[in-house]
Each structure stands twice: as structure tokens, then as C-alpha cells.
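Per your request, structure below.
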């Protein structure tokens, strides 16, 4: 049955009217987005990010930190799934020559510093993990790591009082790279100080002699070539936080 020409004309007018309204809304949305973007970037910076963005990142930290527990474990894989060529991303803290007399420096408190050799660390129970290492840039790769749980080290060297503090700071020997990590994540059962990768000694470019592997966080927290570890109740300096990233960086 053919439609009345008058009805066709009314339908056509409705379509045109709706199209005009949609176009106007689209233009308004574009101008609103530009206005909001400019407004955000006129706000004062806090640690490398405009204040509104930093507030969102801080909220993200509060939410994710409430979820973390010893029962919150990342998925692990069989060793056969490990990447044979582990991706290298960045050489911060690795540009200076490694001192042959390297020792891990643990600042327990002012005037009380513990120095550990690689052999001291290897004498502790060894833990291995194969997991999907995730980079904040968007890529991931299954890799295999071996070393000592930080929680095991804390128990062996009587760092339990230090572990009551809120944060741990880690710094490379050349002080060019540094991270701050909440204590709950540092004491997590999957957090390792690693001296092996894919069953072999850690390569220089991946942080030999010792690096952090913390699966519950993005890779920016897994500092290569650990030189110093210290403890604090306030957030320690963090390289990427100072450049606008999320301090917590949790998964």
C-alpha cells in the first residue's frame, strides 16, 4: 500500500529536523571537549600532571590498593610458555658501568645499614615465577624469573619492624632511576628480587646483578639493577610519578 504523499513529506521533515538537532549536539560536544581540555591544562601541575588528572590517578590508587591481598595473585604459566627473547624496554639506571664490588645496600634506619652480596641472596630460598609481564605502554610478554621473595629476605634479615612502614624505596647505584612502592605490594608473595631470567644469570641489559620483579604492578615499577633499598612512612620519590604517571601502577 502506497503512503500518502503528505505523510512522506512529514517524515522527511522529521528526518531533517532530527539530523539538524544531532549535528548541533555534535558541534556543542566538540566545543565542550575543547573547553574542558583547555581548562584541565590550565590547572596547576601536581607531580607532572594537571591537578584534575592527578586526582583521578589518586582515586585509582585508593581503589586498587583496597583490592590487593596475598590472595590476589597474578596468573602464572608453565616455563614452556616463556619468551626466548625477553623484550628490553629502557635502560634507565644502566648507563653507568657496574661496580665490580656491588652489594645490595639496605638502609634499615639512620646509621644502620645492611650490605648483602649476590651470594648472600642466593643462599636464601629460591622462588621462580613465569607470568605475563605488562608494560604501561600497552604490550605484554610471558617471561620466567628466579630470585628471592622480598618477604623471605625481610624475615631472614630481621626487617620486620621496617616492613611495618608504609612504603619501600628502591634506587639504582647511579641514582638515575628510582621507584616508590607501597609495603603491601612489596611484601606480596609474588614480589621477587631476581638474579635469574629464563633459568640463566640475569643479563646486564636486564638489570644484572639484581632487579625487582613485581607482577602485581606495571613494568615501570620493576626497577633494574637495584642498588639501595630504604623504608619510609611517606611516599618515596618515584621517577615516572614525577613525569605524570600513576604512583601505584597496580594491575
Amino acid at each position: 500500500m502506497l503512503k500518502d504523499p503528505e505523510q512522506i513529506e512529514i517524515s522527511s521533515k522529521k528526518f531533517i529536523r532530527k539530523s539538524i538537532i544531532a549535528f548541533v549536539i555534535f558541534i556543542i560536544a566538540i566545543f565542550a571537549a575543547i573547553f574542558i581540555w583547555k581548562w584541565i591544562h590550565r590547572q596547576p601541575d601536581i607531580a607532572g600532571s594537571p591537578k584534575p588528572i592527578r586526582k583521578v590517578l589518586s582515586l585509582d590508587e585508593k581503589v586498587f590498593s583496597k583490592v590487593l591481598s596475598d590472595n590476589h595473585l597474578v596468573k602464572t604459566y608453565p616455563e614452556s610458555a616463556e619468551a626466548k627473547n625477553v623484550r628490553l624496554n629502557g635502560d634507565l639506571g644502566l648507563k653507568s658501568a657496574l661496580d665490580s664490588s656491588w652489594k645490595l645496600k639496605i638502609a634499615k634506619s639512620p646509621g644502620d645499614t645492611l650490605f648483602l652480596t649476590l651470594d648472600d641472596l642466593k643462599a636464601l630460598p629460591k622462588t621462580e615465577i613465569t607470568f605475563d609481564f605488562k608494560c604501561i605502554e600497552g604490550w605484554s610478554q610471558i617471561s620466567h624469573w628466579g630470585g628471592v621473595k622480598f618477604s623471605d629476605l625481610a624475615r631472614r634479615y630481621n626487617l620486620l619492624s621496617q616492613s611495618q612502614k608504609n612504603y619501600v624505596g628502591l634506587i639504582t647505584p647511579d641514582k638515575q632511576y628510582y621507584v616508590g612502592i607501597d609495603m603491601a605490594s612489596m611484601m606480596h608473595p609474588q614480589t621477587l628480587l631476581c638474579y635469574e631470567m629464563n633459568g640463566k644469570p640475569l643479563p646486564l641489559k636486564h638489570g644484572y646483578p639484581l632487579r625487582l620483579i613485581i607482577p602485581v604492578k606495571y613494568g615501570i615499577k620493576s626497577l633494574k639493577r637495584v642498588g639501595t633499598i630504604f623504608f619510609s612512612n611517606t611516599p618515596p620519590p618515584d621517577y615516572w610519578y614525577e613525569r605524570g604517571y600513576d604512583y601505584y601502577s597496580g594491575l
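The mean pLDDT is 88.

Regards,
D.
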